[in-house]
């Protein structure tokens, strides 16, 4: 896998992972089905999936060459990007679908 395809893989994974917490009412995909999952569960799932996505990026970077050390700025910008990528799922869950739910 070359560097370009690794970057696209991480970006597509981040896009999917950022929207998954808003698409299901199960806690961490396998937990009990909730009538309406609390926002704190969605936030926790979002943080865990962001960590897994960063781990995938680090693994691909290590596979392609030497992994570079990152400062706090990298993680802050990455988290902001991850939250921004989750905006379509947030809109679907709270703004669009929420109006018509029970």
Description:
The chain is 70% helix and 0% strand. It is mostly helical and 102 residues long. The chain has one domain. Helix 1 (3-19) crosses helix 3 (72-85). The radius of gyration is 16 Å and the shape is elongated. It starts with a helix and ends with a helix. This is DUF2818 family protein. The chain crosses the membrane at residues 6-23, 43-62, 74-95. It comes from Roseateles koreensis.
Q: Tell me the β content.
A: under 5%
Which percent range fits the helix content? 55-70%
Poorly predicted ranges: none
Radius of gyration: 16 Å
What profile does the largest beta sheet have? Answer: none
Sheet/helix structural class: mainly alpha
Round the mean pLDDT to the nearest integer and report it. Answer: 88
Count of folded domains: 1
Number of helical segments?
A: 4
Distance between the termini: 47 Å
State the order of secondary-structure elements, H for helix, E for strand: HHHH
Q: How many strand segments?
A: 0
Overall shape: elongated
């Amino acid at each position: 896998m070359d560097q370009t395809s690794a970057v696209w893989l991480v970006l597509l994974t981040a896009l999917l992972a950022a929207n998954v917490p808003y698409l299901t009412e199960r806690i961490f995909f396998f937990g009990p089905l909730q009538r309406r999952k609390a926002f704190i569960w969605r936030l926790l799932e979002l943080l865990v999936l962001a960590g897994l996505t960063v781990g995938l990026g680090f693994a691909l970077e290590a596979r392609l060459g030497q992994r570079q050390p990152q400062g706090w700025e990298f993680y802050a910008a990455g988290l902001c990007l991850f939250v921004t990528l989750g905006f379509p799922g947030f809109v679907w869950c709270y703004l669009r679908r929420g109006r018509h739910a029970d």
